[in-house]
Design brief:
globular, two-stranded antiparallel sheet, alpha+beta, 15% strand, 2 domains
Length: 137
Amino acid sequence: MPPEEARVRFLVAHGMLRTIVSRYVKRGPEVLAFASRRQGKPFLAGVHGASEKVRFNLTGNRWFFTLWTCKEAYLKAIGALPVPGELTARVRLLGDSRPHEGWLIRILSLGPDYAGAIAAKGEDWRVRFRQWPELLP
């Protein structure tokens, strides 16, 4: 990846992280200060109270993004997004309770730099890809 593209991706990813975390700690993204532990795991510096419990991470791992995207697609489809103030939503895929039964999640092949998934009830559906020529390089 060219250095300029890597720099832009870094800035966009960290800007998005800053915006998302700011909503959970109810502070403006511009006032957040990030630091890293010895192992490189980021944390919010200079926060107290409930904000100290906020945990997050930023990764470039392709498989992580694919799994996260599948989980998010399913949660959006069933209307069960995380409650504001909570950073996690659990999807139980094993065990006695199977709320996901009857749902199908399809991973989309969008290229090496993207992760995508669609979740829908039932199995009698398919994904159709469309391209807009004017958007292609």
